[in-house]
Amino acid sequence: MEKGILGIYKKSPIYNVFISTLYGLIGGIFGSIMFIYFGISISPKDFYFVLPLALLLSIIHPRFMCFSYAGGILSLSSLILGWPNINISEILFVIGVLHLVESFLILLDGKRNRIPIFMEKQGEIIGGFTMNRFWPVPFSIFVNNGYIYPITIMAILGYGDFALSNFPEKKSKETASILSLFSITLLILSRLSIKYHIFKYIAALFSPLAHEAIIKLGRIKEEQGNFLFTSTEHGLRVLDILPNSIGKKMGLKPGDIILSLNGHRIYSKNDIDDVLYFRPKFIWIELFDIKKGLVSKEYKNYQKGINNIGVVVVSNFPEQIYIVEESRTPIVKLIDKIRSKGKKSFKN
């Protein structure tokens, strides 16, 4: 996706894999310390129920694969119906630790793979960023299978989000803060549930409902917020700057508005291309800096000339529009397929 939109990789895929693995290892150490310190042990049979239910829920929507939903539902079933017979406190504690590690990784590394995108909102083209990260997280935990022994388990944690009303750096920090608050609360409730039975109900309800509320509120905030990267009548707003580009060397930042280039007013990407068509060796940009106001920036290249400043801009008529929308769930796809077949049969 990054290569398709920008034409280049900001960082090589190998580098991204290495960084994800490194941060995943750090997260795994953090999680292992939590499990060992609190003396948490799990029974493999408990997760024989959690994992299949998580996979089943993912058919409704991919986000329901998160263990917070399956763990909460199974805990309520165990409390109300007496089946399955699982250790509710320890399952919910494990879920809390995994989300705490996830929030830690989002804070450290969540904004790294931000990719600029264009979306259509309320009939207007706006810019934004999509953020996607995955981390392989190995952690050690005690297993209680008649006798207690330590094992190492590999978990895959991921983060996917949009930043339309916030800069990616701020959005990832907000997400990490809210998720850590959810995690710490769930950890406290799960520990209290060991001594007080009522907290088993509270923790079981809190796990799926609070997690879903976090997602819903985050989406509402992005959809109803003041979009940062909109087109403007008085210039061209910068959405992103390519690494090692001239725009990067000139100090351009997301949100800046390019007003003129070499004395020519700029209203579209084509205006920039027209000025740079003859590869000038010296350029100056008048822009509105989001922090400093009106400023002027210069760049010289007397050897090769300049034919590209390496910026992604928000225009009323962008060259490529990536309209990102939530994909249909497998169940909805199946229903639509059945309906379409029914219509064809009816026509025949």
Q: Per DSSP, what share of the residues sits in E-state strands of 2 or more residues?
A: 15-25%
Chain-averaged pLDDT = 88
Radius of gyration (CA) equals: 25 Å
* Number of E strands: 11
Characterize the largest beta sheet: strand count, sense, and whether it forms a barrel.
6 strands, antiparallel
What would you call the structural class?
alpha+beta
Determine the N-to-C terminus distance: 42 Å
Helix content: 40-55%
Residue stretches low in confidence (pLDDT < 50, at least 5 long) are none
Q: Could you give the order of the helices and strands?
A: HHEHHHEEEHHEEHEEHEEEH
What's the overall geometry?
elongated
Number of helices: 10
Kindly give the count of domains: 2
Topology:
Elements: H1 2-6, H2 13-37, E1 41-42, H3 44-60, H4 67-81, H5 88-109, E2 114-121, E3 124-144, E4 148-163, H6 168-195, H7 198-224, E5 229-230, E6 236-241, H8 246-250, E7 257-261, E8 264-265, H9 269-275, E9 282-289, E10 293-300, E11 311-314, H10 330-347
Parallel strand pairs: 1-3
Antiparallel strand pairs: 2-3, 3-4, 3-5, 6-7, 6-11, 7-8, 7-9, 9-10
Please provide a written account of the structure.
The strands form 2 sheets. Strands 6, 7, 8, 9, 10 and 11 form a 6-stranded antiparallel beta sheet that branches. Helix content is 49%, strand content 24%. The radius of gyration is 25 Å and the shape is elongated. It has 348 residues and is of the alpha+beta class. The chain has 2 domains: 12-224, no CATH class; 231-314, PDZ domain (Pdz3 Domain, Roll), CATH 2.30.42. The two termini are 42 Å apart.
